[in-house]
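sorry for the late reply, my laptop died twice this morning and i had to redo everyting from scratch. anyway the thing you sent over, i finally got around to it. pasting the sequence first so we're on the same page, its 115 residues, then the predicted structure underneath. double check i copied it right bc i was rushing
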Amino acid sequence: MSSDSIILICIGLLLLTLFIVMAIHLGRNFRFMRQRQRKLADRIESLRLSKMLGLLNIPLKKYAAKTSDAEKARHIWACERCPNPDQCNQALAGKQIDADSFCPNYPRLKILKKD
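ok and here's the structure:
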């Protein structure tokens, strides 16, 4: 075997190793991202935010696709610290209350509904 063949084999093995390492890391990153998305979805589903999405007929998949993680975090934060939980509960129960007057998330959700 010539030295050129040995060099080519070494380069090939090095590239193969690099490819395998990158594939492993990519798989881990995708798994991490899916777990993170699932945690966000679980938090949203545990809040009035999911009911407000339902009231506006915005599917959770559309909400997930049309909002960034940062925006979802802001919505979760605002919902968890709702300044008007009684009004929100009444609106979600079917009482005719304008959510624009009390819900900090409503303006953005209303825009999402139009999209």
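The mean pLDDT is 90.
thats about all i looked at so far, will dig more tmrw
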